[in-house]
Amino acid sequence: MASCLNLFLFSFLSVVFISNSQISDSLNGVVFPVTRDLHTGQYIAQILLGDSSEPVKLVVDLSGSLLWFDCSSGHVSSSRSLVSGSSSGCLKAKVGDERVSRNAECDLLVRNGAVGIAARGELARDVLSFGSVSSPATVDVLFACAPPWLLRGLASGAQGVLGLGKAQISLPSQLAAETNERRRLTLFLSQSNGVVSTSSVEDVFGVAASKALVYTPLSTGSSGSYVINVKSIRVDGKRLSVDGPLSVELSTVVPYTMLESSVYAVFAEAYNKAATKAKSVAPFSLCFTSSSEVDFPAVDLSLQSEMVRWRIQGRNLMVDVGGGVRCLGIVDGGSSLVSPIIMGGLQLEGFVLDFDLGNSMLGFGQRTRSTSDSLQPESL
After folding, report:
1. Cβ atoms of 67 and 139 closer than 8 Å
2. Which of 109, 135, 173, 325 is a good FRET partner for 128, with 20 to 30 A between their CA atoms?
3. Which residues are in the Peptidase A1 domain (predicted)?
4. What pTM, to 2 d.p., does this model score?
């Protein structure tokens, strides 16, 4: 089954149209295969843009407001055109960002969320291609051309960022507008077989996978980010003395979960009592000696009630740094985080996430051996 999934995802140059014959009865979205860059921990998607046969490699940013890349990076497309400052596309880009300039071209501020830098970019339009070689499909999309130096801190070979946030100009928002469907986003991260889709979990993975999800409300985050609320945190079943609720921002550009310093201090004290500590290994503060991940206490995030919990354990919790030492993949994020908790890629891996933006809900469910078959495209 897994080999069939790999062939399906990668045979069409990384962008696959959801069609009757390929996945389900839905015609409402696209699927982007995603792989993890081992050096940075970032997740890379590839898209076919314009009339070039070369795919554009983009870092997936769950909070990013738009798709942007370095248009001078060798990706040449004769169908690419700049968007005028008086166009409706520029007005969409302007919503929520007063720094958009409506001159002859539409200049706007483009952000690299991985390292927290920004630059002026130019809004452009081109054709996004998807589908099989025998049955291609296209749709016009807006994106930004950004200067080369904005690529700093991105994975090697990445040419830009695939923004998946709530902004009107993000790719999920644009594709939802084209299909007149409510906005949905399905995310499944792994080292080699990840998926980002603008369709629902049911459309991509089938009914069984969809019914296995647990849902929690989505809150309004800054700059279009996806945020959930946590009422309490437990280590090894014991509740920490941290006042809730705490907002948790989900991030694909942060490799490990970050806690605000005051929260981390309480968390670290509790975890040190529950495990045998070893010498720290940067960037981690809490490292332990053990032969397997199962020796370590789980971390539970209680959501809208104590009955609804997101459990973090095993490979989602510990990082093997060698020498029989494993470090906790949860770090001190300092005192100036936008949210008290930013959940990083390691903690999101292996979970199927359904961002139901029409109902402001997030569904989540972990892939296990007993459910792995239901988390593959139905027809494969």
Report:
1. no
2. 109
3. 43-365
4. 0.86
